[in-house]
């Protein structure tokens, strides 16, 4: 029987994430291996290329569950609750992954993600999902791409502001208004409530 691995993929990714965050895309796999306590060859037994390791480390190599739902699920009469759940999952993704992406983009000028950027992917998938709902009469006729951009843009903005607000190492100047903290579910509920007036079925 083969021996069980002495280190998990997540432990390798944690070491890789640390190196990439410090050095950008050019971080050395030799250094990653040293941090993980394994040989460089062991890394490439788990991840075929350095690029695959890089994408897995920042968390964008896997398609999130909500994107799979948007691309394949048929909307139902419960479109409002379905849309709310999708948006809550989307908030979780952007809060976890996007800070890593932005940080790495500042670390290296050569950073060019070999993939469709998540905001573009999500806007396109969401617009398609809304179009299917419109065709079935679950939403009124509207410009689905405009609605999708509004939702994805609002979620990006919320995720970025909440992340920044939680990590500012110094007091915000008194001349700036205090940022009101909003829980993700409350934010999504308020967002859908605001948009629903314009997209609810007639």
UniProtKB/TrEMBL annotation:
Residues 28-47 bind DNA. Residues 6-65 form the HTH tetR-type domain. Coiled coil: none annotated. It holds the Pfam family TetR_N. The keyword Transmembrane helix does not apply. Transmembrane segments: none annotated. SUPFAM superfamilies: Homeodomain-like, Tetracyclin repressor-like, C-terminal domain. This is Transcriptional regulator.
